[in-house]
Amino acid sequence: MQLNEAAVGDHVTITHLNVSSDLLKKRLLALGCVEGCELCIKQKGFFSWSLYFRNKGAAH
């Protein structure tokens, strides 16, 4: 499943970050979004272009 396919309220775990933009990759890392990280989708923007989420951090 792609992250933009998740519904509001879904808890998802990032298994693979396939990001082609270096800037986006840096922003995601700054937010703590790494492989193994659990996210909860809180709100979606129009056309699923923007996602608002809560991050639980990477599981170790």
TrEMBL record:
It holds the Pfam family FeoA. InterPro entries: Fe-transptr_FeoA-like, FeoA_core_dom, Transcriptional_repressor_C. Residues 1-54 form the Ferrous iron transporter FeoA-like domain. Keywords: Iron. The keyword Iron applies. One of its GO terms (molecular function) is transition metal ion binding. This is Ferrous iron transport protein A. The lineage of its organism: Bacteria, Bacillati, Bacillota, Bacilli, Bacillales.
